[in-house]
Design brief:
- The chain has one domain.
- Helices cover 63% and strands 0% of the residues.
- The chain has helices at residues 3-20, 25-34, 60-81, 88-98, 108-120, 125-135, 140-152.
- The protein has seven helices and no strands.
- 32% of the residues are buried.
- By secondary structure, it is an all-alpha fold.
């Protein structure tokens, strides 16, 4: 079984145990994303700290693509746990930091990736409106970028 799947299984088991102990799912997701053993660390081809020997600076397109994939995957995991959205932004921020992005909220790719993740997680169009309102309050451009990402991921 590949390392990523083992880590995901371990994270799922940890979430179950923590939930059984009475902690909120949001807290457990936040803790697992903060940990250095997060499955998101290995979900892209390269890491910003150069652990795989790749120089992220030399590959802006690949880095952006990896960032989008990681934010999409983080969004899917977050939605599937049913966690409150209050800690979602800080989790996306940690994913962005791993890719050398200090202000994910200023990146169009962030919102496109969130939209793709929402589609991949099985969010229905009527539910999407609630997510857009929560993730981009009073910002029609960001809401549209989430919608565009969602539409692009359609199938």
């Amino acid at each position: 079984m590949p390392l990523v799947f083992r880590l995901l299984a371990l994270a799922a088991a940890a979430v179950f145990v923590v939930a059984q102990a009475g902690c909120s799912i949001s807290d457990s997701i936040s803790a697992s994303v903060k940990s250095s053993s997060s499955p998101f660390k290995w979900s892209s081809a390269s890491s910003p700290d150069g652990e795989d020997g790749a120089d992220v600076e030399d590959s802006d397109d690949a880095g952006s693509s990896d960032f989008v994939s990681d934010v999409r995957d983080y969004t899917v995991t977050y939605v599937q746990t049913g966690a409150e959205l209050t800690a979602f932004g800080s989790g996306v921020g940690r994913v962005a930091e791993r890719h050398g992005i200090s202000n994910w909220e200023a990146e169009r790719d962030s919102y496109l990736a969130i939209g793709r993740g929402l589609r991949k997680a099985g969010v229905k169009p009527d539910e999407l409106e609630a997510y857009k309102a929560a993730l981009s309050p009073d910002d029609a451009l960001r809401a549209q970028e989430i919608q565009t990402g969602y539409d692009q991921a359609g199938g």
